[in-house]
Amino acid sequence: SLAENAEDADLYHDYNASLQFDYFNSVLVNTMDEDGNYVELGKEFILEENEHFNNLPVNTSLSNIQVPTNVYNKDPDILNGVYMSEALNEVFVENFEKDPTLTWQFFGSSTGFFRIYPGIKWTPDANGVISFDCRNRNWYIQAATSPKDLVIVVDISGSMKGLRLTIAKHTINTILDTLGENDFVNIIAYSDYVHYVEPCFKGTLVQADLDNREHFKLLVDELHAKGEGKVKKALKESFRILNEATANGQGSLCNQAIMLITDGAMEDFQQVFEDYNWPEKRVRVFTYLIGREMTFADNVKWIACNNKGYYTHISTLADVQENVMEYLHVLSRPMVINHDHDIIWTEAYMDSVLFNTQAQSLLLMTTVAMPVFSKKNETRSHGILLGVVGTDVPLRELMKLAPRYKLGVHGYAFLNTNNGYILSHPDLRPLYKEGKKLKPKPNYNSVDLSELRTAMVKGETGSLSLDVRATVEKGRRVLFLKNDYFYTSINETPFSLGIVLTRGHGKYILLGNVSIEEGLHDLMQPDVTLSHEWTYCETDIDPQHRKYTQLQAVIRYLTGKEPDLECDEELLQEVLFDAVVTAPLEAYWTALLLNETGVEEGIETSFLGTRAGLMRITRFVGTEKRVAKKFLTNSDKESIFTMDHFPLWYRRAAENPPGNFLFYIPREDTRDGKIVIASTVVTVTVNKKVAVAA
């Protein structure tokens, strides 16, 4: 594995303080000076566009190195770490060859550099700054530390006015950014009295999810400095919160810490620790001395050193980031000493490259990560964290656990986290439109699911039935359905998978018995298409197969031209049967088209769809004369089979009695304030198997 290879590479590497090593810096690669020579760390690095990586120019033979602006890219620690981790190149390539569905693989070093595979050209921001620091990323922090309960205690006495309070606020926000859904937090401000920044959270710990973190940041911004700093009461309150959480089995039930942010002016504080934290010292206390003044540094150091914490001095805003991160290394030590290689899965986050390319609910990614420790005998007992290795997993890969065709017309699958949040669901809409741009909603990764929450959070397996009103057409129409919900946990992940089947659909699969020759003949007709979002054959495993559409891949597999393709035999059997059964309709529509009298005026298209995602489309009117130009094209997701859902005309027809026609007018988004009528559709369901429309 990546973690093992990284640890072995470090074990056999001897640190060399004068090491010179010209590595591939992802920002500088392919950069030349005025004389046409490659700049230092910027030699030639071959990049080619790759469809698997969203057509970004990448190098699938090598990884390269990103270093944030605030870290010297030729620091001896960086050079030794980069040189040592060169051994990962071979493992990255080998992993990708074994499993070509993998996306980005990486190693984030505790010294600040980030090794990413495949190698890319990294672009700084508009100001030329590279602000990305892997050590601040959620996957790094979660893998490097265990879940934690934090009480942040901030001094807002009169001596903290001006720049000191600004630095203190930035410190709090930076600490909040190191927390995730598995952590719990509260913030207490003190001067003459103890003041909870959010009175509603008085005396308790709250989950450090995105909503709560952002809420705290807004309240912290409103803090003002005045009065005298009396830290004793604030510390007592902090210990009380943490002790009660432990006694009641609440919070993270793991690490506990107090983060004290002050300019150091305090008195009568030692007794609090004797009364509440000694001799066990179960709660670590981290102290942050704010401002240039060092008069009270000894007080602040004493608190940290006598309570298993860490002392840092923050004199400017630029010092905040680096100094805040130190607490994570201290909290990680027990885990590092024990060599607990726990695999973590992060909360969902947005892959911005995929905007506009997939169904919205499938844009989300999760990262799988694992810590990397030093195995050297001389440092083993010190608990040295070398960094974190990880790989990104698109949620659509997990959703392949429940193939669309097995779920029936209204059925769907969804993923839930152990914190009760939805990771993937057909109705999850993580984007909103601002003008012509799509942007992620602020809390796109924390939509809660109420009815099944408790059971799924506990990782239970079970089922329940609910009568539901399902909205279609962006909430304009309602379907009344009776749904059966089935749920279970996914082994070795913090996720649960839910499957929803609507009564009357998805319980049985009709597998016809037709020969491959007969089925292929009808499948290869020009009016036939297969859903490009469904997986009939795995075209992503072999790079040579990525050029094929799903229909092309199916035909090449069935004709024996690509026997190595991995295909869903059951789904292909359905497709072949559906192609044969629906062939007479294509012949009928073609006859109408060739007939002198033709079809009635106003009818533009005849089409049908089957549960296997097969569609037959006959156009009676040319593109230039057609009113509904988008209808049944890939740009009109509502009218085609997607990974998320069956077409709207199919879903609505399925709830009509067989043989009855359903008339409705699909509507596009408004343009310039006017409603554009796209087309009129007639649908009919035959034996609840095939939806036919004109």
UniProtKB/TrEMBL annotation:
It comes from the Eukaryota. InterPro entries: Ca_channel_alpha-2/delta, VWA_N, VWF_A, vWFA_dom_sf. Gene3D superfamilies: PAS domain, von Willebrand factor, type A domain. The keyword Endoplasmic reticulum does not apply. It is a single-pass type I membrane protein. One of its GO terms (cellular component) is voltage-gated calcium channel complex. It is found in: Membrane. SMART domains: VWA (SM00327). Keywords: Calcium, Calcium channel, Calcium transport, Disulfide bond, Glycoprotein, Ion channel, Ion transport, Membrane, Metal-binding, Signal, Transmembrane, Transmembrane helix, Transport, Voltage-gated channel. GO terms for molecular function: metal ion binding; voltage-gated calcium channel activity. Residues 149-331 form the VWFA domain. Its main location: membrane. Belongs to the calcium channel subunit alpha-2/delta family. This is Voltage-dependent calcium channel subunit alpha-2/delta-4-like.
